[in-house]
Amino acid sequence: MAGRLAGKTVLVTAAGQGIGRAAVLAMAAEGAEVIATDINDRALAELAAGGIATRHLNVRDAAAILALAAEFPATNVLFNCAGLPGGGTILDCSDEDWSFGLDVNLGSMFRMCRAFLPGMIALGGGSVINMASVAGPVTGAQAQFGFCATKAGVVGLTRSVAADFAGRGIRCNAVCPGIVASPSHEARLKAGGDFASALAAQEAAQPMGRAARPEEVAQLVVWLASDESSYTTGTTQIIDGGWSNL
Ligand SMILES: NC(=O)c1ccc[n+]([C@@H]2O[C@H](COP(=O)([O-])OP(=O)(O)OC[C@H]3O[C@@H](n4cnc5c(N)ncnc54)[C@H](O)[C@@H]3O)[C@@H](O)[C@H]2O)c1
Protein backbone atom coordinates (compact mmCIF):
# COMPACT_ATOMS: atom_id res chain seq x y z
CA MET A 1 0.00 0.00 0.00
CA ALA A 2 1.59 3.28 -1.10
CA GLY A 3 0.40 6.84 -0.59
CA ARG A 4 -0.26 6.52 3.15
CA LEU A 5 1.36 9.94 3.68
CA ALA A 6 0.14 11.65 0.51
CA GLY A 7 -0.49 15.37 1.09
CA LYS A 8 1.65 15.53 4.23
CA THR A 9 4.76 17.64 4.72
CA VAL A 10 7.26 15.96 7.02
CA LEU A 11 10.43 17.38 8.57
CA VAL A 12 13.11 15.04 9.95
CA THR A 13 16.17 15.86 12.07
CA ALA A 14 19.36 13.76 11.98
CA ALA A 15 18.23 12.46 8.59
CA GLY A 16 21.70 11.80 7.19
CA GLN A 17 22.09 8.19 8.25
CA GLY A 18 20.63 5.38 10.36
CA ILE A 19 17.01 5.57 11.49
CA GLY A 20 16.51 9.16 10.32
CA ARG A 21 17.61 8.37 6.77
CA ALA A 22 15.52 5.19 6.64
CA ALA A 23 12.49 7.14 7.86
CA VAL A 24 13.02 9.82 5.20
CA LEU A 25 13.07 7.21 2.44
CA ALA A 26 10.10 5.27 3.86
CA MET A 27 7.95 8.40 4.28
CA ALA A 28 8.85 9.69 0.81
CA ALA A 29 7.89 6.28 -0.60
CA GLU A 30 4.49 6.73 1.05
CA GLY A 31 3.95 10.02 -0.76
CA ALA A 32 5.07 12.58 1.84
CA GLU A 33 6.90 15.79 0.95
CA VAL A 34 9.96 15.26 3.13
CA ILE A 35 12.48 17.85 4.29
CA ALA A 36 15.58 16.01 5.50
CA THR A 37 17.88 17.93 7.86
CA ASP A 38 21.27 17.11 9.38
CA ILE A 39 24.70 18.62 10.02
CA ASN A 40 26.32 16.16 7.59
CA ASP A 41 26.12 17.96 4.25
CA ARG A 42 27.60 15.04 2.31
CA ALA A 43 24.85 12.72 3.57
CA LEU A 44 22.26 15.37 2.71
CA ALA A 45 23.69 15.66 -0.81
CA GLU A 46 23.08 11.93 -1.32
CA LEU A 47 19.45 12.34 -0.29
CA ALA A 48 19.11 15.41 -2.51
CA ALA A 49 20.41 13.38 -5.45
CA GLY A 50 17.44 11.08 -4.86
CA GLY A 51 14.98 13.98 -5.07
CA ILE A 52 14.57 14.70 -1.34
CA ALA A 53 14.46 18.33 -0.15
CA THR A 54 17.30 18.97 2.31
CA ARG A 55 18.43 21.67 4.71
CA HIS A 56 21.50 21.94 6.92
CA LEU A 57 20.28 22.04 10.52
CA ASN A 58 22.17 21.73 13.78
CA VAL A 59 19.50 20.92 16.38
CA ARG A 60 21.50 22.93 18.96
CA ASP A 61 20.98 26.13 16.93
CA ALA A 62 17.79 27.82 18.19
CA ALA A 63 17.86 30.61 15.59
CA ALA A 64 18.25 28.15 12.70
CA ILE A 65 15.33 26.10 14.03
CA LEU A 66 13.09 29.17 14.15
CA ALA A 67 14.12 30.12 10.61
CA LEU A 68 13.29 26.60 9.39
CA ALA A 69 9.88 26.67 11.07
CA ALA A 70 9.20 30.01 9.35
CA GLU A 71 10.27 28.51 6.01
CA PHE A 72 8.00 25.46 6.42
CA PRO A 73 4.98 26.65 8.45
CA ALA A 74 2.71 23.99 6.93
CA THR A 75 4.64 21.06 8.39
CA ASN A 76 2.18 18.28 9.31
CA VAL A 77 4.67 15.82 10.78
CA LEU A 78 7.83 16.46 12.80
CA PHE A 79 10.20 13.55 13.39
CA ASN A 80 12.74 14.59 16.04
CA CYS A 81 15.32 11.87 15.48
CA ALA A 82 18.49 13.63 16.62
CA GLY A 83 20.22 12.11 19.62
CA LEU A 84 23.68 10.96 20.64
CA PRO A 85 24.92 8.22 22.98
CA GLY A 86 26.32 9.17 26.38
CA GLY A 87 28.47 6.36 27.70
CA GLY A 88 29.80 5.59 31.13
CA THR A 89 28.29 5.76 34.60
CA ILE A 90 27.27 8.89 36.48
CA LEU A 91 30.80 8.98 37.94
CA ASP A 92 32.25 9.28 34.43
CA CYS A 93 29.95 12.15 33.42
CA SER A 94 31.54 15.62 33.56
CA ASP A 95 29.49 18.82 33.77
CA GLU A 96 30.33 19.42 30.10
CA ASP A 97 29.20 15.90 29.08
CA TRP A 98 25.96 16.37 30.99
CA SER A 99 25.17 19.76 29.45
CA PHE A 100 26.04 18.59 25.95
CA GLY A 101 23.96 15.39 26.15
CA LEU A 102 21.02 17.22 27.66
CA ASP A 103 21.16 19.87 24.96
CA VAL A 104 21.41 17.50 21.98
CA ASN A 105 19.04 14.77 23.18
CA LEU A 106 16.39 16.77 25.05
CA GLY A 107 16.99 20.48 24.39
CA SER A 108 16.70 19.79 20.66
CA MET A 109 13.20 18.36 21.12
CA PHE A 110 12.18 21.35 23.25
CA ARG A 111 13.39 23.81 20.59
CA MET A 112 11.93 21.88 17.65
CA CYS A 113 8.50 21.32 19.24
CA ARG A 114 8.23 24.92 20.43
CA ALA A 115 9.11 26.21 16.96
CA PHE A 116 6.87 23.91 14.90
CA LEU A 117 3.78 23.55 17.12
CA PRO A 118 2.26 26.95 16.23
CA GLY A 119 2.23 25.99 12.54
CA MET A 120 0.57 22.67 13.33
CA ILE A 121 -2.03 24.39 15.51
CA ALA A 122 -2.80 26.77 12.64
CA LEU A 123 -3.23 23.75 10.33
CA GLY A 124 -5.66 22.16 12.78
CA GLY A 125 -3.39 19.30 13.79
CA GLY A 126 -0.24 17.32 13.25
CA SER A 127 1.94 14.48 14.48
CA VAL A 128 5.15 14.88 16.47
CA ILE A 129 7.38 11.82 16.76
CA ASN A 130 10.24 11.97 19.26
CA MET A 131 13.12 9.50 19.25
CA ALA A 132 13.67 8.01 22.71
CA SER A 133 14.93 4.48 23.51
CA VAL A 134 14.04 1.56 25.74
CA ALA A 135 17.27 2.36 27.62
CA GLY A 136 16.16 4.92 30.20
CA PRO A 137 12.41 5.25 29.61
CA VAL A 138 11.63 1.52 29.90
CA THR A 139 14.62 -0.24 31.44
CA GLY A 140 17.99 0.49 32.95
CA ALA A 141 21.15 -0.08 30.93
CA GLN A 142 24.68 -0.28 32.25
CA ALA A 143 27.23 2.42 31.42
CA GLN A 144 24.81 4.62 29.46
CA PHE A 145 24.04 7.18 32.17
CA GLY A 146 23.69 10.35 30.09
CA PHE A 147 21.78 8.55 27.35
CA CYS A 148 19.31 6.89 29.75
CA ALA A 149 18.66 10.10 31.69
CA THR A 150 18.06 12.27 28.64
CA LYS A 151 15.95 9.69 26.78
CA ALA A 152 13.73 9.35 29.86
CA GLY A 153 13.33 13.12 29.64
CA VAL A 154 12.22 12.76 26.02
CA VAL A 155 9.30 10.63 27.18
CA GLY A 156 8.29 13.25 29.78
CA LEU A 157 8.44 16.00 27.15
CA THR A 158 6.41 13.82 24.77
CA ARG A 159 3.65 13.17 27.29
CA SER A 160 3.50 16.83 28.27
CA VAL A 161 3.12 18.03 24.66
CA ALA A 162 0.56 15.27 24.00
CA ALA A 163 -1.50 16.27 27.04
CA ASP A 164 -1.42 20.00 26.33
CA PHE A 165 -2.31 19.79 22.63
CA ALA A 166 -4.51 16.68 22.27
CA GLY A 167 -7.53 18.97 22.08
CA ARG A 168 -5.99 20.89 19.16
CA GLY A 169 -5.51 17.87 16.91
CA ILE A 170 -1.85 17.36 17.70
CA ARG A 171 -0.53 13.91 18.56
CA CYS A 172 2.88 13.39 20.12
CA ASN A 173 4.48 9.97 20.59
CA ALA A 174 7.89 8.59 21.51
CA VAL A 175 9.69 5.80 19.66
CA CYS A 176 11.67 3.45 21.91
CA PRO A 177 14.02 1.14 20.01
CA GLY A 178 16.36 -1.41 21.52
CA ILE A 179 19.53 -1.92 19.50
CA VAL A 180 19.48 -0.70 15.91
CA ALA A 181 22.19 -1.56 13.38
CA SER A 182 22.97 2.03 12.35
CA PRO A 183 26.35 3.47 11.30
CA SER A 184 27.00 4.91 14.77
CA HIS A 185 26.08 1.61 16.40
CA GLU A 186 28.62 -0.16 14.20
CA ALA A 187 31.23 2.48 14.99
CA ARG A 188 30.67 1.99 18.74
CA LEU A 189 31.22 -1.76 18.43
CA LYS A 190 34.34 -1.24 16.29
CA ALA A 191 35.75 1.21 18.83
CA GLY A 192 36.12 -1.68 21.27
CA GLY A 193 38.72 -3.27 18.98
CA ASP A 194 37.09 -6.67 18.36
CA PHE A 195 34.04 -5.95 16.25
CA ALA A 196 33.10 -9.58 15.53
CA SER A 197 33.13 -10.63 19.21
CA ALA A 198 31.31 -7.51 20.36
CA LEU A 199 28.61 -8.01 17.73
CA ALA A 200 28.23 -11.70 18.56
CA ALA A 201 27.89 -10.97 22.29
CA GLN A 202 25.32 -8.28 21.68
CA GLU A 203 23.28 -10.39 19.29
CA ALA A 204 23.33 -13.31 21.72
CA ALA A 205 21.66 -11.06 24.31
CA GLN A 206 18.77 -10.28 21.96
CA PRO A 207 15.66 -12.53 22.01
CA MET A 208 15.60 -12.47 18.19
CA GLY A 209 19.36 -12.94 17.97
CA ARG A 210 19.89 -9.71 16.07
CA ALA A 211 19.60 -5.93 16.21
CA ALA A 212 16.80 -4.07 14.41
CA ARG A 213 17.36 -2.75 10.93
CA PRO A 214 16.78 1.03 10.63
CA GLU A 215 14.09 0.24 8.04
CA GLU A 216 12.08 -1.68 10.66
CA VAL A 217 12.01 1.34 12.98
CA ALA A 218 11.17 3.55 9.99
CA GLN A 219 7.94 1.59 9.45
CA LEU A 220 6.80 2.50 12.98
CA VAL A 221 7.59 6.14 12.21
CA VAL A 222 5.51 5.93 9.01
CA TRP A 223 2.56 4.60 11.01
CA LEU A 224 2.83 7.33 13.66
CA ALA A 225 3.08 9.95 10.90
CA SER A 226 0.00 8.60 9.12
CA ASP A 227 -3.68 8.97 9.92
CA GLU A 228 -3.74 5.21 10.66
CA SER A 229 -2.52 6.15 14.16
CA SER A 230 -5.12 8.91 14.59
CA TYR A 231 -6.17 7.77 18.12
CA THR A 232 -2.60 7.23 19.37
CA THR A 233 -0.97 9.97 21.43
CA GLY A 234 1.22 10.30 24.51
CA THR A 235 2.56 6.77 24.01
CA THR A 236 6.00 5.20 24.21
CA GLN A 237 6.16 2.80 21.28
CA ILE A 238 8.55 -0.04 22.15
CA ILE A 239 10.30 -1.58 19.14
CA ASP A 240 13.08 -3.73 20.59
CA GLY A 241 12.59 -7.30 19.39
CA GLY A 242 11.35 -8.25 22.85
CA TRP A 243 14.54 -7.13 24.64
CA SER A 244 12.87 -5.22 27.49
CA ASN A 245 9.88 -7.54 27.98
CA LEU A 246 11.12 -11.10 27.53
N1 LIG B 1 21.20 2.92 16.98
C1 LIG B 1 20.64 2.50 18.12
O1 LIG B 1 20.92 1.38 18.62
C2 LIG B 1 19.61 3.37 18.81
C3 LIG B 1 18.84 2.81 19.87
C4 LIG B 1 17.90 3.61 20.52
C5 LIG B 1 17.72 4.93 20.12
N2 LIG B 1 18.47 5.44 19.11
C6 LIG B 1 18.26 6.84 18.72
O2 LIG B 1 17.90 6.95 17.36
C7 LIG B 1 18.35 8.19 16.84
C8 LIG B 1 19.16 7.94 15.58
O3 LIG B 1 20.24 7.10 15.89
P1 LIG B 1 20.97 6.22 14.75
O4 LIG B 1 21.87 5.29 15.49
O5 LIG B 1 19.95 5.67 13.82
O6 LIG B 1 21.78 7.30 13.90
P2 LIG B 1 23.34 7.65 13.89
O7 LIG B 1 23.80 7.88 15.30
O8 LIG B 1 24.09 6.65 13.09
O9 LIG B 1 23.32 9.04 13.09
C9 LIG B 1 23.05 10.22 13.79
C10 LIG B 1 22.87 11.38 12.81
O10 LIG B 1 22.71 12.55 13.62
C11 LIG B 1 23.40 13.61 13.02
N3 LIG B 1 23.70 14.62 14.03
C12 LIG B 1 24.62 14.55 15.02
N4 LIG B 1 24.62 15.69 15.75
C13 LIG B 1 23.66 16.48 15.20
C14 LIG B 1 23.18 17.79 15.49
N5 LIG B 1 23.71 18.50 16.50
N6 LIG B 1 22.19 18.31 14.73
C15 LIG B 1 21.66 17.59 13.72
N7 LIG B 1 22.07 16.35 13.38
C16 LIG B 1 23.07 15.82 14.11
C17 LIG B 1 24.63 12.95 12.41
O11 LIG B 1 25.23 13.75 11.40
C18 LIG B 1 24.05 11.63 11.89
O12 LIG B 1 23.60 11.77 10.55
C19 LIG B 1 19.13 8.86 17.98
O13 LIG B 1 18.28 9.75 18.68
C20 LIG B 1 19.49 7.69 18.88
O14 LIG B 1 19.71 8.06 20.23
C21 LIG B 1 19.40 4.70 18.44
From TrEMBL:
Q: Which UniProt keywords apply?
A: NAD, Oxidoreductase
EC number(s) from the headed UniProt entry: 1.1.1.-
Short name of one Pfam family: adh_short_C2
Q: Which InterPro entries match?
A: NAD(P)-bd_dom_sf, SDR_DHRS6-like, SDR_fam
For this UniProt entry, the molecular function terms from Gene Ontology, in alphabetical order, are:
oxidoreductase activity
User: Which family does the entry's similarity section mention?
Assistant: Belongs to the short-chain dehydrogenases/reductases (SDR) family.
Q: Under what name is this protein listed?
A: 2-keto-3-deoxy-L-fuconate dehydrogenase
Organism of derivation = Pseudogemmobacter humi
Q: Lineage of the native species? A: Bacteria, Pseudomonadati, Pseudomonadota, Alphaproteobacteria, Rhodobacterales
